[in-house]
Amino acid sequence: MARIVMKFGGTSVADIARIRNVARHVKREVDAGHEVAVVVSAMAGKTNELVGWTREASPMHDAREYDAVVASGEQVTAGLLAITLQNMGVHARSWQGWQIPIKTDNAHGAARILDIDGAFLIKRFGEGQVAVIAGFQGIGPDNRISTLGRGGSDTSAVAIAAAVKADRCDIYTDVDGVYTTDPRIEPKARRLAKISFEEMLEMASLGAKVLQVRSVELAMVHRVRTFVRSSFDDPDAPGMGDLLNPPGTLICDEEEIVEQQVVTGIAYAKDEAQISLRRVGDRPGVAAGIFGPLAEANINVDMIVQNISEDGKYTDMTFTVPSGDVDKALAVLERLKASIGYDVVQSEAGMSKVSVIGIGMRSHAGVAATAFKALADKSINIRAITTSEIKISILIDGPYTELAVRTLHSVYGLDKQ
Ligand code: ADP
Ligand code: ASP
Ligand code: MG
């Protein structure tokens, strides 16, 4: 007997037929004698619709009320799955975040889980009950419903798995694992049998939305054995109930991966914007004077490039922010114009960031040069570059995103291995 947390994303619970299919996956594990808790997302498209309504009601709105609205999607699917399971003879009950409780901080709209009462869920296991838990939501110190940021049900699932010391956390989605790149962009992408925590963390934070970044962090810290797998596979196909090695991708320690490639995957993030401050005085404290106030305004600055002018007196400061933050950033910079001292500020939206990720880069030279040459051969202009030990990120014009992803995927042989 094992203890398993099963999470089902939006497409997997998109309608009643899909929910029935999910219930069959759950029943398979229950019938095998396992202790099972389930985490569900809202039906596909529901959260977008709810977010849209809050904006329509008022573009600037109270984040606590945003949470009250957008958390409702998961409440519906938790109840519907519990009903479906009961109808199949499985002892199931739905639970919302506040009932367990899943305690979060006060950052409404992007809350972090602080504590989960694992004992509450362990008691349910003892009663032979399958708890069907609404993902994406918790309760803040203000006693109000909070949500965990988009894609947050992954994090709910991994945090619950850690709290109940589950043997496994299965993230069921609409692809059968983590691929070398988004299979929607590159049909030649291959499923990885295993990927290390570090690489998955980079993939997720650089745009691969298959897992929320925070869920990978939690899995890494709490050593949760996490599998990404497909809810579209036949629930009763051979091997689906394999306890130690179910079909999908295992997120694991680097040491568990025998054949490590130099490059593991390509990620991309659209909707980046570039902001340039022209002719900024080149003196100590300038960067702090620019990026401090931007951070205080909660603007996520990503790539930063600084060019010194020939006479050494001035510098151009260029950086990227998510497109949605451009107006806010420009307002901050306008306010700082006198204190920083710059000529003009220019901004350009519609950029993309493509990233090459792989632990093998630590010990291999020339990975970046290969990327630059491959993009040059396709006449793709590089706007900015950042690197770390295990990744290279390149800023390009948005319309070239797909071409760049496919080009990089192929130049590192990811479609072949
Ligand atoms: P869910 O609703 O189940 O949470 P998401 O839409 O959040 O599903 O995440 C699954 C999607 O992530 C896939 O449909 C796929 O298009 C996308 N994706 C992006 N990068 C990758 C990748 N490297 N491997 C697998 N899927 C990826
Ligand atoms: N329903 C939420 C969203 O769409 C949470 C999730 O699906 O993980 O962001
Ligand atoms: Mg998701």
Automatic annotation (TrEMBL):
What is the top-level taxon of the source organism? Bacteria
Coiled-coil annotation: which residues?
none
Q: Return one GO MF term.
A: aspartate kinase activity
Keywords associated with the record: Amino-acid biosynthesis, ATP-binding, Kinase, Lysine biosynthesis, Nucleotide-binding, Transferase
Q: PROSITE patterns, alphabetically?
A: ACT, ASPARTOKINASE
Q: Which Enzyme Commission number(s) are listed?
A: 2.7.2.4
Q: In which pathway does it act?
A: Amino-acid biosynthesis; L-lysine biosynthesis via DAP pathway; (S)-tetrahydrodipicolinate from L-aspartate: step 1/4; Amino-acid biosynthesis; L-methionine biosynthesis via de novo pathway; L-homoserine from L-aspartate: step 1/3; Amino-acid biosynthesis; L-threonine biosynthesis; L-threonine from L-aspartate: step 1/5
CDD domains in the cross-refs: AAK_AKii-LysC-BS, ACT_AK-LysC-DapG-like_2, ACT_AKii-LysC-BS-like_1
Q: Which reaction does it catalyse?
A: L-aspartate + ATP = 4-phospho-L-aspartate + ADP
Q: Which residues form the ACT domain?
A: 275-350, 356-417
Check the record and name the NCBIfam families matching this protein.
asp_kin_monofn, asp_kinases, PRK06635.1-2, PRK06635.1-4
- Similarity comment: family membership: Belongs to the aspartokinase family.
* PANTHER family reported for this sequence: ASPARTATE KINASE, ASPARTOKINASE
Any idea what this protein is called?
Aspartokinase
Organism this protein belongs to: Mesorhizobium qingshengii
